[in-house]
Amino acid sequence: MTDTIARLDGLVPDRLAPRTRKIVLEDYDLPVDIGFHDFEVGAPQRLKVTVEVWVDETSFATSDERLCAWDYDFLRTEIGALAAGRRFNLQETFAREIYDLVAARRGVTALRVSTRKPDIYPDCAGVGVELASF
């Protein structure tokens, strides 16, 4: 394996070198006590969360070692803890808390967080919000 890496090193033209590095948690489906209508309070609803995290080069693994990886288990665990930890009136508030949590992590250069309720309207895939740093 080392020989293969050594032989390939330097063969990728500069114009094809990665310019961005992204970690994705897509459509994390979890119950959230969310909504301001009387019928929503205390009745958790399905929420789908997608988080796209662009990280700097030093935060993106360059070897196949666990210690080099950006911890995307953190995304799922901490978002789940946020959802279980309190109730929310608005998706905007929930999305902002996720955004702030991830934006504070080492190496984050750009971020997009979206949430959507997939079960609100029968003729829509979902209704939601999105925050992005760009």
How does this model look, in words?
The protein is of the alpha+beta class and about 130 residues long. It contains 3 helices and 4 strands, in the order αββααββ. It has one domain: GTP cyclohydrolase I, C-terminal domain/NADPH-dependent 7-cyano-7-deazaguanine reductase, N-terminal domain (GTP Cyclohydrolase I, domain 2, 2-Layer Sandwich), CATH 3.30.1130.10. A 4-stranded antiparallel sheet has the order 1-2-3-4, with helices on one face. It is elongated, with a radius of gyration of 19 Å. The mean pLDDT is about 90. α2 (about 75-85) runs antiparallel to α3. Helices cover about 25% and strands about 30% of the residues.
Please compute the radius of gyration using only Cα atoms.
19 Å
The secondary-structure element order is HEEHHEE
CATH topology annotation: GTP Cyclohydrolase I, domain 2
Number of helical elements: 3
Going by CATH, the homologous superfamily would be GTP cyclohydrolase I, C-terminal domain/NADPH-dependent 7-cyano-7-deazaguanine reductase, N-terminal domain
First-to-last CA distance: 39 Å
The CATH C-level name is: Alpha Beta
- Tally of domains: 1
Low-confidence region ranges: none
Strand content: 25-35%
- The count of β-strands is 4
Mean pLDDT: 90
Please outline the helices and strands.
Blueprint: H1 2-8, E1 22-32, E2 45-55, H2 73-85, H3 91-103, E3 108-117, E4 127-132
Antiparallel strand pairs: 1-2, 2-3, 3-4
Question: Keywords, please?
Answer:
3 helices, alpha+beta, four-stranded antiparallel β-sheet, 134 residues
